[in-house]
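One such given next:

>
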Amino acid sequence: EFRRVLFRSFQFHDLLINALALADNIAPTLVSCSPANAESTLFDPPVITLTFSETIVKGAGNIEIHSVSAAGPLLETFNIQTSSALTIKNNQLIIRPSQLLAGGMQYSVKLTAGVVKDQADNAYAGTAAYGFMVLNHAPAATDSLLSIAEDSVYTFGAADFGFSDNSDHHVLAAVRISRLPSLGSLLFNGVTITSE
């Protein structure tokens, strides 16, 4: 018995696929800040952390800290290429101000356009809209006991009241006298203090 077998020939062609490399043309954006924008903070420790939408590298330009607003008095300038107060870690820019940011003040951080960029060389657009309020830290005080000889005169100074304000560097502004001595006199600028 004979069987007829039909062979069909198939021809395969190599398929050439061209892979197109997509160019990154999207610039990094600022996504969060610490302290947060418009936040009231004790600013302790005194570090500003800016987080971007992608990994960043140094660009060119300056970062400025102003008091009150971006148009207010300039307190400190950091050059992105040379300042040792700036650190970049992946997508974060960390700023460590060398000057004290005193409490009770509003501050603005200004980043010039192109101060940082992404790894594809897309420059950050810059901002002058980021700011925060630094709150006053509570000062410290210590009790003190002073003994003086009878019929002698002692002039009090600020150091006698144990006042310190290492955070904001404020000075002693006033002293409240709650009780006058039963013996002797207490004078202020030569005038005897009396109870009201």
